[in-house]
Design goal:
Helix content: 25-40%
CATH class: Alpha Beta
CATH topology: TIM Barrel
Largest sheet: 10 strands, mixed
CATH architecture: Alpha-Beta Barrel
Distance between the termini: 39 Å
Low-confidence stretches: 1-17
């Protein structure tokens, strides 16, 4: 049985049974809602978040707030000129994450976005479910200059995968990985990563997953905890000791709004966020400054949401960068 941690002034769950893998025994939400004064860590060279260009997806993943079985599906598409405006603020040589609240490759402008990023001297990384990775598309992406692939995959058993990623096939991903690996001799700087959401059914399988993906030529696996009810978390990867401030970033949404974090991307799907800065009227730097001001102001719309949001665990990191939310396993050092 895991030892139940004790935090002064905070509740712990009653140990009616042995804790399951990923359960810390902490009432995380009590830690979140304990007295806390938020203070943005303002930096001159802030870190831009992902540019999420598109809301449409052909899968219906069970945990997806945007296109899952119980989601209200939407179809916003970020204007190409807004994508370019955001990219123009990224420093040359920096990484840029191109994702979607849907599937990136269902954005009709996806390849043009990649071409523009590379023409600006940026290093794009695409987050995708991988179901469109045919040899033809992979060859085109490599020709454009993409060298980093991150595929979302939460199971290594085909039937388990299909229950989670409804409409997808595990074999499509395995075939794509096999093909990408045949191109390594020509492109030695290729980086292949897997993103895996941890549920109770697979939390204990992390070592097995690492072995499986290592055999399929994957360089890294990123494990992340599962959120629910928008602002809540379970199956933590570590035990948080106290609440920490979030690092304000700039995530561009398909609507053109600029969110400070992943939690606000989720919230914005079903709620009015007219109070967020907009890329039509703000630069990323102006958006960052405004979001920091809102984070510091307990009366702002943003701060009211932050007060009950567990996503701060993303920023409770140890020296290796791991947190209660996230852990990276490096599989193949090249």
């Amino acid at each position: 049985m895991l030892k139940l941690p004790t935090l002064d002034g905070l509740k712990t769950t009653k140990a009616k049974h042995a804790l399951q893998p990923g359960e810390t025994g902490i009432d995380l939400h009590a830690l979140t809602t304990a007295p806390f004064k938020a203070k943005a860590k303002r930096v001159q060279n802030f870190t831009p978040g992902a540019i999420t260009t598109n809301e449409v997806c052909n899968l219906s993943c069970v945990m997806c707030h945007f296109n899952g079985p119980n989601a209200v599906k939407k179809g916003k598409l970020l204007k190409p000129e807004m994508v370019r405006k955001a990219m123009d603020e990224y420093p040359v040589g920096s990484h840029i994450y191109l994702a979607s609240t849907g599937e990136f490759f269902l954005d009709p402008n996806a390849l043009d976005h990649l071409r523009y990023a590379i023409s600006k001297g940026l290093k794009p990384q695409v987050l995708s479910h991988g179901q469109f990775y045919t040899p033809k598309l992979i060859d085109e992406l490599l020709a454009i200059g993409l060298r980093s692939f991150r595929i979302s995959c939460d199971a290594i058993d085909a039937s388990h995968y299909e229950r989670i990623r409804r409409g997808g096939k595990l074999q499509v991903i395995l075939d794509a990985l096999a093909y990408i690996n045949t191109r390594r001799a020509e492109f030695p700087d290729l980086d292949i990563e897997i993103g895996c959401t941890l549920f109770k059914t697979n939390f204990h399988l992390q070592p097995k997953y690492e072995d499986f993906w290592r055999e399929h030529g994957v360089d890294k696996v990123h494990f992340n905890a599962e959120y629910f009810d928008m602002f809540r978390y379970r199956n933590l990867l570590a035990t948080p000791k106290k609440r920490v401030d979030c690092a304000i970033q700039t995530y561009v949404l398909p609507s053109g709004k600029v969110a400070p974090c992943c939690a606000m991307i989720v919230y914005a799907h079903d709620h009015d966020v007219s109070w967020l800065p907009d890329l039509e009227t703000h630069t990323l730097k102006e958006s960052y400054d405004k979001l920091c001001d809102m984070y510091d102001d307990p009366k702002s719309e943003l701060s009211k949401l932050c007060a009950k949001c567990d996503w701060w665990i993303m920023f409770d990191q140890d020296p290796s960068g791991h947190s209660p939310y996230f852990r990276t396993a490096v599989l193949n050092k090249r």
